Amino acid sequence: MAGTLQFRDHDGAQEAIRKQLHTTIFSQAFSPGGKYLAVGTSFGEIAVFNISASLSRNSNEEDMKPTFLFKATDGPIYCLTTTDKFLISAGTGDVIAWNWVDVLRKTPKVAWSLPIPTNRYGLSNPEVNSLAIESKDGGKRLFAGCGDNNTYIWDLESGSLVQTLAGHTDYVHSVALKSLSDQCVTGSEDGTVRLWDLRTPQEPVAVIEPYSEVTCARSEYGRWIGCVAVDPTDDWLVCGGGPKLSLWHLRTFAVTTVFDTPGACQQYTSFFEDTIISAGSEPYVNHWYINGDRRSRVPCTPTSVCNVTINSEAENNKVLSVVGSSAKVDLCTNFGYKALSLTVC
Amino acid sequence: MAASTASGSDFEKQRQTCLKFIEKHHNSTDLNGLRDEYQTLPGSESERKLALDQAFRDAVHKQVQSGGDINILTSLINLAVEAVRQELGSHSTPFLLLQDTFDGLELEKCSSLFKFVEDGVATWKSDIFYSAGKNYLLRMCNDLLRRLSKSLDTVFCGRIQLFLARLFPLEEKSGVNLTSQFNLDNVTTFSSSAEDFVRKSSETDGEKDDSMEIEEGEMEDTLSSSIPIDYNLYRRFWSLQDNFRNPQQCYEKIAWKQFVVNADEVLKVFTSNKLDDIKSSRKNLEQPKQSDTHEYFAKYLTNEKLLDLQMSDGNFRRYVLVQFLILFQYLNSTVKFKSANQVLSEEQSNWVRESTDKVLQLLRETPPDGEQFAKYFEHLLAREENWNAWKNEGCPSYVREATENTAKQKSLRVRKRSLGEDIKATGGKVVKMGNDELTRLWNIYPSNMEACKSDKRIFLPSLEDFFEEAILQADPEQQIEEQYKLVSQSNFCWRSLRLLARRSPHFFAQTNQQPGALKISKFVESMVMRIAKEMPSTLQEEPKTELEEEEDIREEHQEEELDKAEETGKEEAVEVVTADQVATVAEELSQEWKRLAVELNFPEDDIAYIESDNEDTVSQALKMLTLWMENEAERATPGTLKIALKEVGLIDIANKVFPS
After folding, report:
1. Which residues 294-353 of B have a C-beta within 8 angstroms of A?
2. Chain A residues in contact with B219 (beta carbon < 8 A)
3. Terminal CA-to-CA distance of chain A, rounded, Å?
4. Exposure pattern of B139-148 as b/e (b: 16+ CB <10 Å)?
5. Cβ of B312 and A296 within 8 Å?
6. What is the C-alpha to C-alpha distance for residues B424 and B407, in angstroms, rounded to an integer?
7. In Å, how far from its chain's centre is CA B228?
8. H or E segment at A206?
9. Contact flag B217-A338 (C-beta cutoff 8 Å)
10. How far apart are alpha carbons A297 and A276 in whole angstroms?
11. How confident is the model at residue B289, as a pLDDT?
12. In terms of CA atoms, which chain A residue is nearest residue B224?
């Protein structure tokens, strides 16, 4: 009896280690107020960390573990985003919203969910690769870049599908919104970056093909565009993936700067203050100057980085969080180095 | 006892009189008045001295009590110094006065009075005062330092320290940390106390419970700190300071392990968190002066909220990296006062070596001017080794006694002469340059200045010579067509312009024509005309009739013939040395030819050249004489040769070859 019990325990420990080794964290979102961090794993779990506790003076091992972990979906959670009330997760299956209050009470309930429209044969079950929230004029819209090559836009007040941006010939990796105009940008596996005007959603305003640009093309890594971001002035776009990370001027659609990362494809990029942050298939987070010089290259735990998010909600918890192919979440207080690692399991 | 009281009253009297003298004389710089009056005092020499010393102290005492006018005090002390120099007072008096003054004055005045002490370093260091005063001065300075606040009066403290450094020699025992002890009082405190933790933890526990109210939780948090703090790093970072404070700890096993972990962590953070090199260099372009302002802090601020700023501060990083290097050097170096068990193990020294490389690399990367700073610091550490060795030898004096041995060596050493001196010393004699051709060239002229001035080196033709033909052509009577004139040749024009620029004032005279409007040939022609006008009238003869010209020609012809006749006559009259005579002279001369050559004004290098060009002396002599004949032409008469031979004392040869 004792033997079997021991064996079973042993098995459990083994499984935990194996799970830890196989965990990839695809997505993350900070809570409103910036005190908590939610991450979505490849096992369909959402883990919530109390960052205030982890960063506190007397933090211990326990504070590096999630305060709460729950199974959200069956498939992996590719993207997480947040409104002031809801934590929205998506991946395979529907887009699901969780009330933050419920999550923090450790009683998560699906507040509402949005099904991805099926194609006319009713056969597709596309995944959501990228979520973006736009809150303007009181109304909120949710953008989802999906595996069926389309980008869907919902009005969150009514919960109805407003628009569908179709045109990419392969799945959409990344969606970025322009902050001043009614436009958005999508990057896709087909190698193009498309700029859409939501007043004329039938076809894109412009199509950028970084793979055909000599300065940033890298045929050995393919054409795909893994990440796009638009700066707050709406004048600049940065994108990367198979081609090198490159900065484009949105009025002239010309490349101005190329940020070279030999041997690595960028999967995440964003503008932060006067720098560009990018990360990808190497255990580093790059900080760039707009002129193309690398400001720093900060080592991190995951060997491939999926997402980098800066907690802009609260100044006292203003950290840069890095997730990727590891069960660890790296927090950087000073963005120049990794301060500590949180563990999902 | 009775005697002493009796002399005591005398002393009192003397003291009073001295005081009066001093008060009378403290304004005058010369001491004669005081000395004269001092001589009038009764009592023995030592009694008088004592009285004067005491009087000085009284005078200073009075001044200090009445407010302490710095000027009067300094003049009093100066007077005392002078008195000691004149053997009137005892050596220690000025120091006692200084001590009294500093004891009695408030710090502000001390500071201005200290200026006087600083200026007097030379005086205090002089033989009369040094041995008597050094202890007084040291005590006085230490007293002052004790009174001063270390954090507020940093400048004054520094001045005192500098003064001491100037006053005492390097090996002065009071200034050297002989036993290599560390300043263990320099504790860097940082907040890691347990109570602090407890208080905080209860706070955060409370927050956890009402975490539903998100906004409220946030409010509470902002009270504790406004930015996220990496406490892990904070603790590791500041606990390093303890190892820097007391490096001996590193030889203990547990402390060492902790140190290695902390150091590795901190260095990793430094490596990862690159500082803005580009940004700072950009800034410097705009504000080049900015890097000149160096800030220096004697102590670190350890507030946890500052950590983030400190991590991105280049200067701060430099301090810490330098601390690392200093510690590493200490750990590796042999210090006399280390105990036997204070040695690094193989593994430890490997780690130290690796970390040293890492730290140096980081220093190089740390802006501004990291490369240079690292280089300087490496150099500094290398010098530190020397100081360490010096200390290990027990701090011997740095003034090296001149031993007799070295003095002897000095005198034996032959003074090395420079080449220039060599040439001057020979006074124009041949200087061997080590190579025949060089020797010849070097000796063409003994003096370079004269060589340059020689007529041979004037290459400019005179205006008259150069333009003679052109002037003739310019004469319209010559009827030379324009195109055949010299002035229409561009080559000639160019050369004339150059010559005019050097020789003619007209070239720079202003013309009313636009520059460049005139064709060069026309310009040159006009210049030619001007020069012609200026020239002496030789060419401005009256135009002659053809007849006259014919006559002229005839006359000239006759003149020429006459000249010819004269010349031939001269030639016949003048006797020139014949080749036979030269040959015989040469044979007779053989060895002596050089002396004759000198007499015949052959330059040294020619002689050397002749010598090297011909093998035996006879042919050398012959060559020399032939050259002489060629040079002198008709002046090479037997007479001159005879005189020359006589001058060098070879009268026999002269008589033999030229029998009169």
Report:
1. 304, 308, 311-312
2. none
3. 29
4. ebbeebeeeb
5. no
6. 30
7. 53
8. strand A206-208
9. no
10. 12
11. 45
12. A316
CB within 8 Å: B230 and A339: yes
Phi and psi torsions of B392, nearest 5°:
-60, -30
Summarised one tens digit per residue, pLDDT across range A250-259 is: 989 999 999 9
> Is pLDDT at A176 greater than 50 in this prediction?
yes
- Measure the CA–CA gap between B549 and B553, rounded to whole angstroms: 6
pTM summary value = 0.59
What tokens does B629 get? Answer: 């004949």
A126 prior amide bond cis, ω within 30 = no
Q: Which residue has the tokens 């009082």?
A: B185
Residue B167 amino acid letter: L
Integer Cα distance of A174 and A26 in angstroms = 13
Residue A202: how many other CB atoms lie within 10 Å = 11
Between A22 and B287, the higher pLDDT residue: A22
> How far does the CA of residue A294 sit from the closest CA of chain B (Å)?
9
What pLDDT score was predicted for residue A188? 94
Residue B551 phi, psi (nearest 5): -60, -45
Task: Measure CB to CB from residue B273 to each of A36, A51, A336 and give the nearest one.
Answer: A336
Do strands A139-146 and A151-155 pair parallel, antiparallel, or not at all (unpaired)? antiparallel
pLDDT along chain B (660 residues), means of 10: 51 76 68 72 77 84 82 84 81 86 85 86 84 86 88 87 86 76 82 49 40 38 60 87 87 89 90 68 46 64 84 86 90 80 85 92 86 91 88 78 57 52 52 76 74 78 80 77 77 84 75 63 80 64 49 57 50 65 80 81 83 82 84 78 81 76
- The answer to whether A55 contacts chain B (CB < 8 Å) is yes
Q: Do residue A57 and residue B273 have CB atoms under 8 angstroms apart?
A: no
Distance CA B508, CA B516 (A): 14
Task: Please give the structure tokens belonging to residue A187.
Answer: 């990057």
Residue B643: HSE in the Cβ half-sphere, 13 Å Cα cutoff? 6
Please name the residue of chain A whose CA is at the shortest distance from the CA of residue B213: A101
Q: What is the mean pLDDT of residues A148-162?
A: 90
Q: Which of A302, A334, A49, A320 is nearest to B233 (CA)?
A: A334
Residue among A132, A270, A272, A125 nearest A198 (CA): A132
Which pLDDT belongs to residue B221?
Answer: 40
